[in-house]
User: Fold these one by one.
Assistant:
Number 1:
Amino acid sequence: MKPYPVDLRERLLQAEDAGLVRAEIARCFGISPRSLSRWRRLHREQGSPAPRPRPGRAPLLPPERWSALRAQVAAHPDATLAEHCARWAAEQGARVSEATMSRLLARVGAATQKQTLIARERDEAERAAFRAGAAALAPADLVFLDETDTPTTLTPLRARAPRGGRPWAGCRGGGASRWRSSPP
């Protein structure tokens, strides 16, 4: 539960100073009389009824460093969590677990989505020229061979991209893939 705002605390203490009964103030505003006495003590001790800082650890990745994580995801969208952790440790000098990296990626808006794979060598002008040439061939004269032996297991099926975007990636064997908001 969030603490009550400082201005509300000050106004209620001023109402008590003006002569209103503590029980009546508590009943009207839906707070406990104990809260009023605690705020009075805080005001005496620290000069303000502001809440004390809540205990807890500082976040491993403060919001001002989220842009570096977003840049890492944009540069390597198909990296696994372990690869992201290793890269973050090497570049930023802070080790994080895979579970923490997963939570951080979700917090910065990098959703895990299915990749849409495209050929890196794709050239629309060459494809149009090939189609035009193939249209003149007789289907009975064509022989099809499937000897590409392309391993499809080298490319992960999922990658990370900003919410609402789709990760377009090429095959992993030929170099790092890139995230794009639209197909090339």
Number 2:
Amino acid sequence: MNFESNSVVRRSRISCVSKQLFAMSMLIAALTVSGCGPTYPKCDQDKDCHKAEFCVNNQCQQCRGSQDCAAGQRCAAGACEAIPGYCTSSSQCGAGKECQDNMCVTMTQSMPTEPAPVAGPSGPCELQPVYFDYDSSTLADSARQQLSQNAQCIRDRGMKAVHLTGLTDPRGTEEYNLALGDHRAQSAQQYLKSLGTEAKITESSKGEELATGTDEGSWARDRRVDLKAK
């Protein structure tokens, strides 16, 4: 084989190697671009999702809870949706309705208040539930008054231990409602302790588990903390 033939063979081999290297570089580039992480909308963490999205149960969603949504919206199945009847003023409600706790309700409706019975001819006092505003764990004046009466009942009956159970209406996700119920129970617990209650006070949350309401009037009774002597 002459020199010219050897050169042709060498050039052919070099060309083959170059093609192989080029193919490998393209494969590496493709792997680099595609990455090894989950494919959207699947995710392992928040950074795998688009801006303002959250990774919930390995799926990119608009919200984890209602706190991630704008005012007047709630988180349902990972998406923010408008809250039916939400308002900021009574002018947004229809005739015969007014805006209470950011919800349009009939003017005759109000948050239930059930004062605890006092000891007397009818028998000893009983612990009464404490009610909360919509999507809130802050104690209203009526709730503080009820807790004060409950604290007096605990002292009068010499109760050694009391358990508080936080509850919510059915709106919102199960996870969010469990947390909200817990916050409500903690608020009631802290206030009872601030009143000098000596009984052991424990708390837990059942969220929306015991909710029975179907409208604002009945939902108001779902938003409460129940007290039970142990």
Number 3:
Amino acid sequence: MKYSVLMTVYKSDNPEYFKLALYSMINQTLKPDEIVLVKDGPITEELQSVIDKSKQDYKKIVEVGLKKNVGLGLALNEGIKKCKNELLARMDSDDISELNRCEEQLKLFEKDPELDIVGCPVKEFVGTIDNVVGHRDVPLKNDEIHKYAKRRDPFNHPTVMYKKSKVEKVGCYGDYRKNQDTDLWIKMLNDGCKGANVDKYLLNFRFDENTYKKRKSWINTKLLIKIRWNGYKIGFLSFFDFMFVSSVQLVMYILPTSFQKFLYKKILRKS
């Protein structure tokens, strides 16, 4: 089965991290048919150098240059337009995929052609890939995913492989600077899309102190509440689900970062 890799790169991205992320997709055991790489505004010479050098090893990189930074969601939408295959594998510019990630996901699509989204759990690491600090698990089966999605994200965004036509049917990513994936999962699942997660840790997620700071912001909190409210309006969430998630988000915003760390490490993540 042919598939496209969909990535974005931004001027503030670390060139070394970006190189590791890019090559983890270039070197997949089942190689992609193309890598569509969206430059979300002008990028640095160091980042461009990584792209130029990678083209010597992999000829099918499609560069999509945006004149200004538009944010992850809108940048991905531009990339989706350029992808020529139905199956698209998402990848972030600082994480590292296991080399058999896409092969394992394609096996599920081959086993069940009705699947629309396939992700996987992730290992969270700090610094080097062998310094694992946690695991972010997700539900595996479609019915579990639909239930889980009413309160939490049922997919890890950098891990997903999804069908282009199904993403386009619901209008692709919304114009949000953060949490675009939450909005997309709600829209796709509400539209009847079928999902699954591979029961293997196929992606290494780069985690650091800034991860906590990004999550503990009013912009992040406000957008999540707005997206969940939209989910309630279209009938995917109950009002109780909406109130529960909103209350948790507000508590996470108000309480100190130390409490957030405790909650993530002891309750929301598996060490």
Number 4:
Amino acid sequence: MKLIECPRDAMQGLHDFVPTALKTEYINLLLKVGFDTIDFGSFVSPKAIPQLRDTTEVLANLDLNNTNSKLLAIVANLRGVEEAITHQEITYLGFPFSISETFQQRNTNSSIAQSLQTVEEMLNLCDKNNKTAVVYLSMGFGNPYGDEWNIEIVEKWAEELVNRGVQILSLADTTGVSTPEKIKTILPALVQKFNHTEIGIHLHSTPFTRLEKIEAAYQAGCTRFDSALKGFGGCPMAADDLTGNMATEDLIAYLQSKGENLGLDMDRWNEAMLFSSQIFDNH
């Protein structure tokens, strides 16, 4: 079972800038919990995501000496890829690939065709620089923009990406439109069809539907979950004010109830939970 904690996703839409030292202290606490991966920052235009303009400074102050957690950074174009690969501390580069033309333009200012080319270039650079690409199949459960969407389109783009060498594919519910029924239909189909690819899930949800979505994904065989402490965050490019991230504490509680040994230091986790109020209650 792989748990990916996403402080980057939680913080990126906050209105007031979180001081670099505060970000760093928070992420350093999360690094001690035992998550497989920490999605810590992004190499994107500061005009697009001003909250993360200090990603390089945060990275320089992370304590990676006593952690097994790996670092993931989000990129949105080739320039971001080229910057991210210069940092040896980063293991994963994440790219949001939308199957909605409208949202791909809105999120990365590029078309689907251009983004597919970016993925190809990212894969090549990752191979040369000992990095691994994680591609998020954005709008994987539908979209509110009127673009055509169906399961066949999801599978088509998943196949395009896998055929180009993507080894980790995360099915992303960008605007919270997933349902247990959709999760149980789409996820197993992708896992079965691309059985040599690691398929994960990045769900957004209101507090009222979190547990049913977690349960659906678990029952569908998901072993890679993205989440954020207390469910903070969401995608600012989607203006989805009502659909935050999947709450890590709900995910942990559910998986533990199923007897999963997550290998987490719960004392450190509780410490991070308490500290989080300094960021999310004040910014």
